């Protein structure tokens, strides 16, 4: 089978698309014919091994899983002897943030990890685009005690995380203001926020004491910049560590102080994220933002370069169908 492989940590230029043996499922695994995956920012981290902390999970000196890719949607083609809940022909999807080897025609995947049967009416590309960014969005949002009508500022409405966050927050009946570049205002408006701020035309830092929660989903701002727009006990969360990893230190300080504070959540329960997303999709409350650029295994390296540019809009599909 064809797969995108990297033997060492490094940039996409060092990856190769080659033929490797089709995997055989272990007793607790299913063999999935992968129909769609995404190329995402988690792939960038897992592939380059940066920040270095990620290597504690993905392999200290070289990647434990050599095939790239973290998420998948596809069809079960074989089941291991101990597998009871999945059957040949099931349409399934899943995500593993430390890398799962999904950029390949076939994948052997343990059923003890995050994997679900897909709703009948969903197509593979749409379903797989509900995994990575949405998982982080859910885990960051659930750290804040939000009630309907509270106000949230989402900085970066066009990222995989931000575009998911806007819709998840709206499903919670929270009032959402999203920030993006002027050219993307219409695209972000379609995700359903109450207000969209085009960066070049309006300065969101002038919205004094307006928000219960500021979520910098692209990690381009700082707590010090956003503090004036937070309400008295408002929370700031960023998807990035910030300059000199300041968000870690600030989060530690926030644990022992009152008032405006930083939280730096560790996104953990992936299966719960998939279940939450599947419910929102089935209720018609979530439609992932999908980038116009699509790739196949033949040009997957171009896809990695595009994602690393920080210019993608939502989720970039890798079509393996
Ligand atoms: N903490 C974690 O566990 C974790 C996990 C995964 C990812 N991340 C991080 O989360 C961040 C977001 O990843 P992502 O996949 O959602 O999106 P992304 O690939 O970083 O996409 C960024 C999008 O945001 C826009 N953007 C860039 N700068 C902006 C700004 N100052 N204000 C508003 N919008 C801006 C870009 O627009 P233009 O195209 O116009 O520039 C682009 O459409 C990345 O930095 C990633 O490394 C963190």
Provide structural commentary.
The protein is built from ten helices and 15 strands. Helix 4 (132-141) crosses helix 5 and helix 4 (132-141) packs across helix 9 (270-282). The chain starts with a strand and ends with a strand. The protein has helices spanning 41-48, 55-58, 124-128, 132-141, 160-171, 185-189, 223-226, 246-254, 270-282, 300-308, and strands spanning 2-5, 16-19, 29-39, 71-79, 91-95, 106-110, 115-117, 151-155, 175-180, 195-198, 211-216, 230-238, 261-262, 290-295, 315-319. It is globular, with a radius of gyration of 20 Å. The model has no long low-confidence stretch (mean pLDDT 96). By secondary structure, the protein is an alpha/beta fold. Strand 12 (230-238), helix 8 and strand 13 form a beta-alpha-beta unit. It folds into two domains: 2-129 and 289-319, Medium-chain alcohol dehydrogenases, catalytic domain (Quinone Oxidoreductase, Chain A, domain 1, Alpha-Beta Complex), CATH 3.90.180; 133-262, NAD(P)-binding Rossmann-like Domain (Rossmann fold, 3-Layer(aba) Sandwich), CATH 3.40.50.720. Strands 3, 4, 5, 6, 7, 14 and 15 form a seven-stranded mixed sheet that branches. The chain has a six-stranded parallel sheet with strand order 10-9-8-11-12-13. A two-stranded antiparallel ribbon has the order 1-2. The longest helix has 13 residues, at 270-282.
């Amino acid at each position: 089978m064809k797969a995108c492989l990297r033997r060492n940590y490094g940039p996409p230029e060092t990856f190769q698309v080659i033929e490797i043996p089709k995997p055989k499922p272990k007793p607790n695994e299913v063999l999935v014919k992968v129909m769609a995956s995404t190329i995402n920012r988690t792939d960038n981290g897992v592939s380059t091994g940066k920040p270095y902390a990620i290597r504690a999970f993905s392999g200290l000196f070289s990647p434990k899983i050599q095939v790239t890719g973290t998420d998948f949607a596809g069809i079960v083609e074989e089941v291991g002897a101990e597998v009871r809940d999945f059957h040949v022909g099931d349409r399934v999807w899943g995500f593993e943030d430390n890398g799962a080897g999904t950029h390949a025609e076939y994948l052997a995947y343990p059923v003890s990890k995050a994997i679900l049967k897909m709703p009948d009416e969903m197509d593979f590309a749409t379903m797989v685009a509900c995994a990575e960014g949405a998982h982080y969005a859910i885990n960051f949002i659930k750290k804040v005690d939000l009630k309907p009508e509270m106000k949230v500022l989402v900085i970066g409405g066009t990222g995989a995380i931000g575009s998911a966050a806007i819709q998840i927050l709206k499903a919670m009946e929270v009032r959402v203001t999203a920030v993006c570049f002027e050219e993307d205002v219409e695209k972000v408006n379609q995700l359903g926020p109450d207000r969209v701020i085009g960066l070049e035309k309006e300065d969101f830092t002038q919205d004094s004491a307006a928000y219960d929660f500021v979520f910098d989903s692209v990690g381009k701002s700082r707590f010090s910049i956003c503090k004036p727009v937070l309400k008295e006990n408002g929370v700031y969360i960023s998807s990035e560590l910030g300059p000199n990893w300041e968000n870690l230190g600030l989060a530690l300080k926030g644990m022992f102080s009152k008032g405006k504070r930083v939280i730096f959540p560790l996104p953990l329960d992936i299966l719960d994220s998939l279940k939450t997303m599947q419910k929102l999709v089935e209720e018609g409350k979530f439609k992932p933002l999908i980038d116009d650029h699509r790739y196949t295994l033949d040009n997957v390296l171009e896809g990695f370069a595009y994602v690393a540019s920080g210019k993608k809009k939502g989720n970039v599909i890798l079509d393996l169908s």
